[in-house]
Amino acid sequence: MSDKTVVITDASTNRSATLPVVSGTMGDPAFDIGKLNKDTGYFTYDPGFMSTAATKSAVTFIDGDQGVLLYRGYPIEQLAKQSNFLEVAYLLINGELPSAAQFQTFEHDVTHHTMMRESLKNFFQGFHYDAHPMAMSMAAVGSLAAFYHDSLDINDPAQRKLAAIRLIAKMPTIAAAAYRYSIGWPIRYPRNNLEYCTRFLHMMFEVPSEPLQLSPVAAKALDLLFILHADHEQNASTSTVRLVGSTGANPYACVAAGIAALWGPAHGGANEAVLKMLAEIGDAKNVGKAVERAKDKNSGFRLMGFGHRVYKNFDPRATIIREMCHKVLADLNVSDPMLDVAMELEAAALKDSYFVERKLYPNVDFYSGIIYKALGIPTEMFTVMFAIARTAGWVAHWLEQHETPDAKIGRPRQIYTGAPTRDYVDVEKR
Ligand code: CMC
Fold this sequence. Notes:
The protein is mainly α. The chain has helices at about 35-40, 75-80, 85-95, 100-110, 120-125, 135-145, 155-180, 195-205, 215-230, 235-245, 250-260, 270-280, 285-295, 315-330, 335-350, 355, 365-375, 380-405; strands at about 5-10, 15-20, 30, 60-65, 70, 75. The protein binds carboxymethyl coenzyme *A. Carboxymethyl coenzyme *A binds near residues 232, 302 and 363.
């Protein structure tokens, strides 16, 4: 909170409100409008939260104009180069990088909560064979609340931490089970002698009949993708987790709601949409036509993987991932015609005035889908992959929310545009 205030006066009624200015450590300040309605009779109207901070948070900072992304103050570029996903998860949750001993304990805890109860595993049998893995993952995560009564008391910090660990630990197990079920393969148990990403790849691809040959590049690439997707401050799914969390709902319900919000193509579903779009374009020679279609507002077609609500210059994650994308394809010796389409599309959009003027640059999802494809992960699983990574951010925000004294239930207001008060009319008179 700063000493600055802003006074808003309604000249017609002479009612005014003195709004304190709230400043964080970095970023734009905000007016605290908590008493605005009481003092003036006005609400604020901000569809899509274009100018509204819904909370204070110390987890992640974004400067969209400068292309800056910090987790707990650490630049994403440094974390991508020097850290690993589990360490980043620890950082997001606890606020500081772990010592070697703290990391060992955290890794041990996550590793030893990876198993699913057998009866939860059996839930998958209830789905139709072609169920989307997001639907299965969302349902399975929500159902964890039915199994872990020892971590449902949200007023107990130890139970909250336990739930956070469980969610980070079990998400890969659930995700891999959803995939295996959808292709009719037996669900694999997590192998605790492996690290987080390698363990996940084993659960995805290992078959009982032969050992899995796994390129170390695959786990490294996955780890990088998970770091880049781990958190992104108050995005739609994290805000959903917080909104549900504000009601006092249990952590598994909150994260299941986050998964639901992530599913949409304007959010986490974009990486799946990118691949579908590239397949639809089909060949680099069709890129020009696709760009023209995306510029035509009547076509209803947008270039998936371009543009971002917050990054209006460039997405720093896209810069890191673009480099990794080329490395992975070279190291895994993958030649993918979709990549040619993607590269052609990227080049065409970057020099087209429509995209340049609107600052529509490739975002993180433009490249992540191509890497996932190179790793053998099917398109329907892309958003699930995002959900595994984002679970770290979701639980970090959920924990932060419950450490905040006097937190209120989230309850937006509205501008009512319906019929004014009217009398009920009997059916024979209508
Ligand atoms: N292709 C063509 N035109 C676009 C696109 C696009 N991908 N994105 C925005 N525009 C145009 C839009 O039509 C509008 O034009 P005009 O000013 O003439 O009306 C202008 O650019 C601004 O668009 P907006 O919809 O007001 O921007 P927004 O900040 O509300 O939306 C967005 C951001 C990400 C939803 C949008 O850019 C989009 O739909 N992109 C494609 C989907 C996508 O890649 N989503 C993943 C986001 S990154 C992952 C994450 O963090 O969740």
